[in-house]
Amino acid sequence: MQEDRRLAVLRAIVEDYVATEEPVGSKALVERHGLNVSPATIRNDMAALEEEGYLTQPHTSAGRVPTDKGYRLFVDRLTTVKPMSQAERRAVTTFLDGAVDLDDVVHRSVRVLAQLTRQVAVVQYPTLSRSTVRHVELVALTASRLLVVLILSTGRVEQRLVELDRELADDELGTLRSRVNLAATGEQISDAVIALNALVAGDHPASPVMSLVVETLVEAMSDHRSDERIAVGGTANLARFGDSFDSAVRPLLEALEEQVVLLKLLGEANSGGAVTVRIGAEGPYEELSSTSVVATGYGPGDALASLGIVGPTRMDYPSTMAAVRAVAKYVSRVLDEG
Amino acid sequence: MQEDRRLAVLRAIVEDYVATEEPVGSKALVERHGLNVSPATIRNDMAALEEEGYLTQPHTSAGRVPTDKGYRLFVDRLTTVKPMSQAERRAVTTFLDGAVDLDDVVHRSVRVLAQLTRQVAVVQYPTLSRSTVRHVELVALTASRLLVVLILSTGRVEQRLVELDRELADDELGTLRSRVNLAATGEQISDAVIALNALVAGDHPASPVMSLVVETLVEAMSDHRSDERIAVGGTANLARFGDSFDSAVRPLLEALEEQVVLLKLLGEANSGGAVTVRIGAEGPYEELSSTSVVATGYGPGDALASLGIVGPTRMDYPSTMAAVRAVAKYVSRVLDEG
DNA sequence: CTTGGCACTCCGGTTACCCGAGTGCCAACA
DNA sequence: TGTTGGCACTCGGGTAACCGGAGTGCCAAG
């Protein structure tokens, strides 16, 4: 009974604090919410919650503020799903449906996510390794210069230039092209690499041109540099941080420039199908101790790549989580269709 | 004589103010610089400069601060070229030489520019319209689905999918490919469009497949959506704004999200080969009245696209201009080689 | 035209002060 | 055992008063 009320108090404090940005006191609490007890009772509860580490006081004789632990409990146990409005859903779908290529999908996603959550949005480009090969094209720019174009199911295009040591006849190019495509087209990257290598190994003696092309393709397929690409949007929302510029915004801006850090932050979210929340100092980055990350995977099995937002620990978790989930869902769908 | 000294005073004030970020007074001025006159004399000069609108006082009895007009004069007439250090030059070249494709070039450019100037850097992707066609490839995904791949001299790749109403034989595809390439390869986009259209007009009766392909290509070539792409970097440098967060940083962050605004800002720089400087409220954007833009074109004839930085009006113009010029130069060279 | 002298201005930092919201604790009560 | 009203206490933040110093404008003399 008292236990229930304590959790209700915690929830109320989180909600009020997120809304008002000010430490919330016992009196204000009983007024705003329909708690049928006196402020003194609430004070006792708050003292207990503080004792357990869910709340803290900025200074003696100020209201209470949730700690990271408090937010964590709130997110894990007290959050009631807060579905997005019909209008918001529609906004997401129509905006995303207008995308014409992969770049466009990613950019529109950050944008809509930033707008919906009013936070900084981050979207990782689909990982190479999870996509399949749609087609491989070999273009003879000159008789001895070959352009190798790798087209993936996500819409990504990788191209490499190959210099041959001899000239290549048209029919040679044709057979090369069809053999490579036979091996790779439709396969997942990992399988394609295997099949391509088998292609070379099967030749006796191995054609130098073939091995060169295969080598280039394999190299392009395992080029994880492009895995590291991300799009960021909504940085203007940082302006709302208002206070705590140095302590919060500066490290965040720096993190946003450091793709590696961002990828790590998002990466945590890649497992399981659900929306992941990292609160405050839970991660390895001390400088980001006053920010939270809400992220999830997207694509088939939610394993293609991650997207999410980063904002102050003091944020509206229910709405934010709903928005992240919704965008991820629609992005997955769009990529599936394309 | 006195006129010369006045300009020297203005220059000294700009330099000191940029360095110290504090209004500069008469006494400090004569000490720092080797002016062989008394503070009182300087005061007279400063009063005159203020009268003419080059200086202003934050409040009565504080030092002087340059106005936009003061910076303008400084940039136009008082700037002595300030060559970059050998180390900096080397940093630019080596960093840019490591780029593997167009995306990489652009991203490395923003990065190096942001680092060099310690400002927010902006680089526009090479404009479609100024590049030439390197190759057109037609790939039969199935017998009736054609992938049209347009490869440009800048390294950009545009691809479109075409659905045919009938199946296409291999030799048909071959002739189609060679006719299209004959017309377009090596041409500037604008010329290629003309040549391609002529190709269709010359056919009697026009082959429906040919016109479909040409139509797709022309559409891809005139797709100005991709002209609007830009890369932004160094936003972490905004943290150095320190003061004036709301008045300066917020609108800037908003502008950085608005590609249109950025393109306009950069666009002004596109003419002439030189580095352009927009100071404070000189442009149409009132909200950006406390920021300056230093930009220039790059690519052959400096006409391919623009790059530059945006920062506070109180910036080190000589160094910044040198950095912008240098990066533009090396980017042009890299693109030329690739 | 330059210079030293001088009175004046005003910003910024410091101190003192008070108000009010909020707390902790205690004794009384259900 | 849990709840409630009462009460003294704390402390942040806002306001007012104050002061020093850097800087200016002006003037008269060189």
TrEMBL record, chains A, B:
<keyword id="KW-0346">Stress response</keyword>
<dbReference type="Pfam" id="PF01628">
    <property type="entry name" value="HrcA"/>
</dbReference>
<dbReference type="GO" id="GO:0003677">
    <property type="term" value="F:DNA binding"/>
</dbReference>
<dbReference type="GO" id="GO:0045892">
    <property type="term" value="P:negative regulation of DNA-templated transcription"/>
</dbReference>
<keyword id="KW-0805">Transcription regulation</keyword>
<dbReference type="InterPro" id="IPR023120">
    <property type="entry name" value="WHTH_transcript_rep_HrcA_IDD"/>
</dbReference>
<comment type="similarity">
    <text>Belongs to the HrcA family.</text>
</comment>
<keyword id="KW-0804">Transcription</keyword>
<feature type="domain" description="HTH deoR-type">
    <location>
        <begin position="17"/>
        <end position="62"/>
    </location>
</feature>
<dbReference type="InterPro" id="IPR029016">
    <property type="entry name" value="GAF-like_dom_sf"/>
</dbReference>
<keyword id="KW-0678">Repressor</keyword>
<dbReference type="GO" id="GO:0003700">
    <property type="term" value="F:DNA-binding transcription factor activity"/>
</dbReference>
<dbReference type="InterPro" id="IPR001034">
    <property type="entry name" value="DeoR_HTH"/>
</dbReference>
<dbReference type="Pfam" id="PF08220">
    <property type="entry name" value="HTH_DeoR"/>
</dbReference>
<dbReference type="InterPro" id="IPR021153">
    <property type="entry name" value="HrcA_C"/>
</dbReference>
<dbReference type="InterPro" id="IPR002571">
    <property type="entry name" value="HrcA"/>
</dbReference>
<dbReference type="InterPro" id="IPR036388">
    <property type="entry name" value="WH-like_DNA-bd_sf"/>
</dbReference>
<protein>
    <recommendedName>
        <fullName>Heat-inducible transcription repressor HrcA</fullName>
    </recommendedName>
</protein>
<dbReference type="InterPro" id="IPR036390">
    <property type="entry name" value="WH_DNA-bd_sf"/>
</dbReference>
<comment type="function">
    <text>Negative regulator of class I heat shock genes (grpE-dnaK-dnaJ and groELS operons). Prevents heat-shock induction of these operons.</text>
</comment>
<feature type="domain" description="Heat-inducible transcription repressor HrcA C-terminal">
    <location>
        <begin position="103"/>
        <end position="321"/>
    </location>
</feature>
